[in-house]
Structures are given as structure tokens and as C-alpha cells.
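look at this fold:
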Amino acid sequence: MNAFPPQSPLGSDELNVSEYTHRILFGGRTAESFSPPSPLQSQDYNFKDEALLLTTRKVQYRCMSQLSPAELITRGQQFINQMEPKKDPGSRNNSSVGVGGINRYLISVCVEYLQQPVALKEEGLFRVPGDSSLMKALHRDFQSHTVSKEHLRWSVMEQKDPNTVSGLLKLHLRENGLLSQQSLDQLLPHVGSRDHEMLAETVVEMLPPDELQPLLEVVSLMATIVMEPWAQDNKMNPRTLGIACGLSIFPSLDPGTATALLETLVKKNKVLQESQTIL
């Protein structure tokens, strides 16, 4: 760190924090000698190397600690503003949030992807785990409300592994809850009924639209998965889907009840859809 003389590296007005950081990181050369913008310009320059980003931020905070109170007032807010992620003004309403924070757009995009033949043929769909780190990254993007719908959709549709997308859908449903606890409490007395058609009709009658619509979308997808010719390749049936996804869709129920409820709904998907049409 011989890039600067020891006296007051930040005392000069012509040397701001970002330039100081840039010169430290790159051997004393000035920011102007580099094509990328200085590290503080996070809205323009995206570090691929997280270690470099962490190092940069540590140096930046150390630089801030050397500022006098007056300099901190004048430069500190600029530093903070530059470090904050920049939101796309047109993307604030890029998702519909329902019960428990359910993101309707995430569900729709995942269902769109998983309805493709190449995904429907994937063996163990919804049972085989996908890339956990990628699922979490995609989920953060959808939940951030700072990414455009077009980019969110593209980030899912470009995925090569259907298990990552099915895992993303399960992750979102498990963390946010597709149905409210009040709705589940109302349905529980009917879950053990042997009249599965009546159970399906009860679900349609009792659930509010903001819970019913995403549930029907997910169940309809699963009903397609267990149909031929797809089931011959993906090796999934209503029971295995119930085991794999029951607790993700109904996380507050015990495993047996959650499995049985989802299995029944998948089997009676036609009744669900027809009952909704009548209503």
C-alpha cells in the first residue's frame, strides 16, 4: 500500500473515496486509467468476483473512517447513496403478492416453464432436488421487486435443469404459504372425507379467489405431470407428488395430512376446474 504518501490521503477535495479505493486496489494507478467505472458505481459495474467486492467494501469503509466529521457529512451521504442498489422505477409493481407474500408472477412463470414437454419428461420432477444456490438466487430476485418482469421471466426460462425450476416453485410455496391458516382450518374437517369429489368442490367454494387461483394453477400443472405420456418418462404419480410437495404447499399441516390433501386435489383436478367454472 505505497500508492499514497502518509499525510492525509483523504484531506484533498479532488480525491474522493471511490478514486482512493480504486487506486489502492489497482496499484496506485488512477481511476482514469481503467475502463470500468470506479467500484462505488455499483449501478454500472457488477463485480463477478465476490471476494473482490468484499475487499473493495472493506477498503471503502476504512477510507470513510479516516474522514473528518465535516468531510463525513459532505461525502458520507454520497457514499451511502452509491452503495445502495438502484431500483428500476418501472419495476416496483412487477409482481402480484397474495397470501403470506405469495408471488403470483413467480408461480405463473414456473408453471409456464414446467408445462414444456422437455420439463414434463424430466424423471423425478418435483422429487429430485435442483441447484440450491441457484434456486435461492432466483427467489431473491423475484422477492426483491427491483428486477423487471421481462428479466425475471428470462432468468427462469433459460434454465436447463427443470428440477431447479420445480425446486424454486417449492421453495417459494414453502416459505410463503399458499393458503392462509384460516382457510386450512376450514378445510381440515373435510380432508378425511372419502368423498373426494365433495372435497374438491368444498375447496373451490371455501377458498377466496386470491388463494384459489394460484392453488388451481399449481394443481393443474401437477395433474398434467401425472398424465400420459409424460408420466411414463417422469415416473411421477399423485401419491409421489403428494409426498414430494404436500408440505411445501401446506407447510402448517402434518406430513400425512398434507400428502393426502395434495394427492386428492391432483386426482380430482378436473372436478376443481369444473367447479370453478360453475362459480
